[in-house]
Amino acid sequence: MGPTDTLDIIDLETQHIPGALLLSQEAHWNQIYSDWRMMMIAGNAIGMEAPDGRLVASALSLPYGSEFGWISMVLVTKDWQKKGLATRLLRTCMERLEENGLVPVLDATPAGENVYRPLGFVPHFSFQRWEHDAVETINVRAAEGERFDAARVQPVIDRDAAIFGGDRRPIIESLVARSTEFSCLDKATNGFLLGRDGRVASQIGPIFADGEDCAGAMLDHALARVIGRVFIDVCDHQAGFADRLKEYGFTPQRSFLRMAKGRTESFGVPSSMFAMSGPELG
Length: 282
Prior knowledge:
Elements: E1 10-11, H1 17-26, H2 33-42, E2 44-49, E3 55-64, E4 68-76, H3 85-99, E5 103-108, H4 110-116, E6 121-132, H5 153-164, H6 169-178, E7 184-186, E8 191-196, E9 202-208, H7 212-223, E10 230-235, H8 239-247, E11 251-261, E12 273-275
Parallel strand pairs: 4-5, 9-10
Antiparallel strand pairs: 1-2, 2-3, 3-4, 5-11, 6-10, 6-11, 7-8, 8-9, 9-12
């Protein structure tokens, strides 16, 4: 029996968040305490502890309605990597989703794609993370969008479910609460923009809209109100929207590929997706 076989897979609770934060910080990811708490509330977090009690690996499965669920936050600390921990956790997340009749879906890095394809994951569409170090220096018109209030949250949850393809109410409720300074609605098309604070940057997204003009106007609304470094994960099929980011001085950071196990057809309405919520959320 190898040393990693003696590590049990455990369910992670609130008391594990400090250890989970250390894992995501070591990977140079953007999550903060509120992200881990949000994801633990919305889904099922699992992990492994070393004999000394240190959390050394994590993974998450997020059920999004009746058709599919999300897999994310598969992390292993450096001195426990390449020992099979990530594979065990990934397979456990897949099994738990499939036991409930849900298709496992995830956003893969180029390196991750080579891991997921042999497991039956097939590509849907790609997107790119764009970043800007100081968006307050961008000369954008302070476009006016309708701000959120409590009465408007349910329509946004419904609209998100229609475009994203799955019900992620706890996620949307959390993003609405965390992006009140810059989130907005477009009443004419039912488009919306949300986001959240992060460890190294604010994340703008999702941005869902029926057209590029609407998406661009909501982007301007947000950029006029955010300060500091910003990440936006933009779908590659929205080339005009990506060009707008280039004009504003955003630069590409890294790419992702949305993949689903054993399903070639995309969920939701990708043509209305301009920016994602981040690979950990979809």
